[in-house]
Amino acid sequence: MIWHIAKKELLLNLISARFILALLLCLLLIPVTMIVSVDSFNNQYRTYQVAKDGAEKEQNSWRVYSAVRPTIVLPPQPLSVFCQGISGQMGHSVKIKLGEKPMLGEGQTNGRDNPLLLSFFSIDFVHIVAILISLLALIFSYDLFSGEKENGTLKLMLSNSIGKSTVIAGKITGVFLTLIPILLLCYLISVLIILFTPQISFSASEWFAVFILFLSSFLFMASFVGMGILVSVKSRSSFNGIVISLFLWLWFLFLWPNIAIYFAQSNVKIGMLDQLQQSMDQYDQELYKKRDEIAQKLPELYQYWNANGGDDGYIELSGSPLPTMDNNRRLMELFEPIRIEYADKKWALQQEYLDKLENQEKIARYLSFMSPSELFGHISSMICGTGSGSYFELLNQTRIYRDVLIQYFRDNKIFSSFIYFTPQPERSFFKTYDDLLNVVTGGICKNRQELKTWMDAHNGSWSVIWTVPYPEGSYSTYPPLDLSALPKFTRYKLGIDKSLPAIFTEAGTLLIIFILLFSLIYNACIKYDVR
Amino acid sequence: MFKNLLFKEIQLNLKNLRFQIAFVIVLFVFIVGSLFNVNESRQKQELYSKYQTQWLSDIRTRVESNASNLATRTTSYIMRPRNNSFISDCKERFIPNSILYNAFNIFGFEIKQTVSNPLLNRFEEINWSFIVIFVISLLALLLTFDAVSGEREAHTLALCFTNQVSRAQVLFSKWISVILLISITLVTGIFISLIILIIGKAIVFNSVVIVETCFFLLFSMLLTALMSCLGLFCSVIASTSNVSLLYALTFWLLFSLVIPNTSVLWAEKLFPIEHADNVEQQKSLKREQIDKSYPVGRWSSSGNPFMPEHKIRAAMQMDFMLSDKQINDSYYQAMFNQCERSRDITSISPLSLFSYGMETITGGGYLRFQYNWNALHVYQQQFLAFFKNFDAKDNDSPHWYNPYETYSTTRKPMKFEEMPLYTEKIIPLSDRIVKMAFYSGLLLIYIFLAFAVTFIKFVRSDAR
């Protein structure tokens, strides 16, 4: 009998205008959203490839260990075409430095070449499904009882020998039977679009994630069906029912998420990222002082012949005489460990900032438990691995890798060896700077005093007397380092299985909402006055 | 007679549950939004002023140590928080907010993270324009979707026509009543919101606020008129109020989600621009060519500013900068064009149109960014002229302009008070009004079209 009533509901719905409109809306919204998402993914992938190639090219140009600062480029998540999560807002490239721990990723974050386009409203599949399915769930259920009551057919139905609970069960089944094909259609369209996109290929676990995503959207839909039916039972007329339903929809989908974030933001204050940078710069000032203190004790430190320098302690020397080389080696040996120490000091500040970010997010998330759509959004970002949890896990892995790298440097005594800053073999160093001058000027200037006199007479320029070639003196002629023993970054992929417990907790909350609503509905139906 | 009808409509709506709920919700959102806004704007202002003090003192130390130190240093100008963001935030969180420049060039723009938390996914902020776009527009549809179809079902429409009233009067009374009611709701909400903002010291109540509020109200009423007219249209063409509700919701989804969501698609498919990495490649190719064309020894340097190599390098660095600039400028222009073309297309949706209109009212968002982008170019020219002038007075300077190094220009300190500083420009009201007139003109055309179609349909419709 339940089946009978359900079938009647389904057939009635199928011929109604609302079903056709619902299908049309799906056909309009889902493809557009998916095409935009897929396009953005392709772009992200392109950026990833370019960044990765750049990182590899860079790696092949390292001739000294002070340049060895690997860049880790995190690939975009294919599942982000379903749920963007925070992946569009976070950087995906991490440079491993000695002087600073990686805090948040860097680089172009969104898959768009034109940052101005970010001002356009753009939402992902999960959001569209949330907005659409919740609306449809309410539209198909708001008049479930009140509508038939107004027509008088409810009385007629109950005058047969069917129990009220049978009618309730049948009607609810009918609503679900109508909505499931629509939901399926949404997923079918998106899956088809993905199948026909050559750049995206899902692995088995990713297809499984899509399946879990479907199940959770079903739960989400059920909670809104429950809401709609409850409204329909409680409201005096179907007209009141739809009005209340729509305001509920507006509240849960558009207003509550914003309010929750506002609450979180007014409870936890975070500073500007630039201010964090400013306080970290103070540590850098201290560092410079320490470096100067060490450098003062090391004579002839800056008698460079050919030198290059850069970010995070990169220094590359060649051609300089032995005292300069050796003192630079001493400087590195003493100073690099201090820099690493200061990175930990800076990390305390960074950690504080990150904690605040996470706390805000946590509060917002707890508050969002009060809205099924937010819960659903959060579950999907976990399923797709685009939430903050998996992002932080990845960054944590990069920090661990940094420790491994530093340990490798220490174990191999790289900081105290020449290869840290010069590719030139030790045996080809000149004994003194004067020796060097004597050779390269072909004997024109035998020492620094003579060079100075010559330069004063020639307007400061001395490349003219640099007549004898000194190929060992140019660092760029040396081959790149052999990095086969260097520890590589291996990314432990966070499969869906790792986040399943968290997903179950939140999906459980959705289920509880659903059960609660249905017990309320059942109670209300038993007492329902059919006249 | 028209008065009677209008009075009846207003009375009916006032008693109606939907209006009552909506009134409460709108007021609630206005109150909550303003409370948070008070909190947030204060926080933003404080943080920004701290940041700015630091920024200015940085500039001061630089310029007072050595003028070239500042001139060759790439600084980023971060846009200040707007104090009328309670009207609309104009998506400023998402668009670039900082411009990189030094005395020789404007290098580009970027999105600097300021106070917002990147972990929080917030797609809209609760401010006046959000309330109008998401709540008021839906309300306008909800109040009108059964105006005709409902009466038809209740058979009061036929009864109404038996009196001596024209159909135009009936339609007009329904339309005007809804616009009036929503305006009352809106004015109440804005009034309460303004009081909260003033008490919370988030704004100073002055003529600018009044003017902007009035413009906002006017714009919102235009949107309300259009949306309610669309609601009437739905109720005229549908046979039952059930169906007309669906039509109305479809319209709303179309305008608030579907069309805005396609803008990126239009931008990328119809008005494509070069990929950023290709542009980078072009730049580095050009740089390589330039690099090869200069003699060996160009990278040598010494304490003597007049060293000939410095001159060579200054010329080379200038070439680097100019070749980059040429490519960059056209790329940025392409970006602006792409963005504007897609905005034009999405203006079909009145809700998108409304949000673009908000930029003209508040002088914020994309418009403000673009305006300041141009203004900063002018400032850079002025600063360069000032710097060159200052440099010319120094006989110890070789006057070789190297945009990245301090060797070849004056090393004398400059007085901080004397140098020109960039202060953010507010778009002049006249410029804004011209643009506003364009947007409201478009809205008026939409309203006219919608009403014309509705009227024709209504006159021909069967009252039974």
Described by strand count, sense and barrel closure, the largest sheet of chain B is: 3 strands, antiparallel
Helical residue percent of chain A? 55-70%
Mean pLDDT of chain B: 88
How far apart the termini of chain A lie comes to: 23 Å
Rg of chain A, nearest Å: 34 Å
What is the topology, as strand order, of the major beta sheet of chain B? Answer: 1-2-3
Note poorly predicted spans of chain A. none
Residue fraction in strands of chain B: under 5%
Percentage of helical residues of chain B?
55-70%
Note the gap between the termini of chain B: 22 Å
Instruction: Going across the biggest sheet of chain A, name each strand in turn.
Output: 1-2
Shape of chain B: elongated
Shape of chain A from CA axes?
elongated
The helix/strand series of chain A, from N terminus to C terminus, equals: HHEEHHHHHHHEEHHHHHH
Largest sheet entry of chain A: 2 strands, antiparallel
Q: Can you count the helices of chain B? A: 14
Radius of gyration of chain B: 29 Å
Annotation keywords:
heterodimer, A: 531 residues, mainly alpha, two-stranded antiparallel sheet, 15 helices, 4 strands, B: 464 residues, three-stranded antiparallel beta sheet, 3 strands, 69% helix
Concise overview:
By secondary structure, chain A is mostly helical.
What does this structure look like?
The complex is a heterodimer of chains A (531) and B (464). The two termini of chain A are 23 Å apart. In chain A, the strands form two sheets. Chain A has a two-stranded antiparallel sheet. In chain A, strands 3-4 form a two-stranded antiparallel ribbon. In chain A, a hairpin with a 5-residue loop joins strand 3 and strand 4 (315-318). Chain A has a domain at 2-272 and 355-405 and 488-526. Chain A is built from 15 helices and four strands. Chain A is mostly helical. The mean pLDDT of chain A is 86. Chain A is elongated, with a radius of gyration of 34 Å. With 464 residues, chain B is mainly alpha-helical. Chain B has one domain (2-460). Chain B has helices at 2-15, 17-65, 67-71, 128-144, 149-154, 156-162, 167-199, 207-237, 241-270, 276-293, 308-346, 350-362, 365-392, 429-460, and strands at 75-78, 98-101, 106-110. A three-stranded antiparallel β-sheet of chain B has the order 1-2-3. In chain B, strand 2 and strand 3 form a beta hairpin. In chain B, helix 4 (128-144) packs antiparallel against helix 7 (167-199), helix 4 packs parallel to helix 8 and helix 10 runs antiparallel to helix 11. The longest helix of chain B is centred in the N-terminal third of the chain and has 49 residues, at 17-65. The model of chain B has no long low-confidence stretch (mean pLDDT 88). Chains A and B meet through helix 2, helix 3, helix 8, helix 9 and helix 10 of A and helix 2, helix 4, helix 9 and helix 11 of B.
